[in-house]
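Reopening this one. Same input as before:
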Amino acid sequence: MTGAPTIVALRNVGKTYDSGTVALDGFNLDVQGGEFVALLGPSGCGKSTVLRIVAGLSEATQGAVERPDGNIGFVFQEPTLMPWASVATNVRLPLKLAHADDAQAHAAVVQALARVGLAEFAEAYPRELSGGMRMRASIARALVTEPQLMLMDEPFAALDEITRFKLNNDLLRVWQELRRTVIFVTHSVFESVYLSQRIVVMTPRPGRVFAEIPIAAPYPRDEHFRTSADYAATCRKVAEALEGAMAEGAS
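Same output, byte for byte:
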C-alpha cells in the first residue's frame, strides 16, 4: 500500500500450543514499511499471538516468518510500568538494557516523553498518573529506541471513550511524524477504521485472514472524519466482514 519494501511477512503460519489449542492456521500477512495495519477480530482469534510471533516472543509451529533485524517496539494491553520507578526511569529501561550512552539515553527519553505529551511528568511515579497517562508512558518506552516496527496489543481497550479518542488522535500524530510501521491489534471496528490504512479481519480460532480492507480516507484524521458519512459507511463494511468471519468460524 505504501510502495515501500515489505518488512513483515508471515507465510502459512500456524501456532499450536502445548495444550493442543490451535491458535493460528494458514495465516498470511505482508506489511510494508511505514504502513499502519490493524488486526481486527473477536477475543481469542489469535491477534495477540500474531504480534508475539512477529516480535519473536513466540515461535510459529509451522510456516515462515520475516521480521526486521532492528529494534521492535511492543506496547502491551497493560502499561506494565515499574511502580517504584519514575516515568523517565521506566521509559529509559530499554536503553539501560541495551547499555546505551547516558547522555544519548537522557536525550532520547526527553524526546520520547515530549512526543507523547508527558514532558512535565518525567519525575512522577505511575501511581500519580491517570490510566491514559500510564499508557502514554508505555508508548514512550516503546518509542525510545526508535524502532522500525511498533506492535500494539489493544493498548486503549481499558480506557474510557473520551481518553481513547484522544490517544487515538495522539497516536496518529506520532505515526505521521515518525512514519514507523505499526501493527495494531483491536476488537473495535470503530477504532480500526479510524486509525489504519488497512484492516486485516481474522476468523475465530484458529485464526486466519478472512478479509483485507483498505481504508482510503486521507490523513490527518480528526473528529470531522469520525462523524462523516464515509466513516460510518466504512465501519458498516468492516462490521459486515467481521460478521462474515464469525459465521465462517461457526460453520
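So the earlier flakiness isn't reproducible anymore. For the record, Helices lie at 47-55, 87-97, 102-115, 131-143, 161-178, 189-195, 223-226, 229-250.
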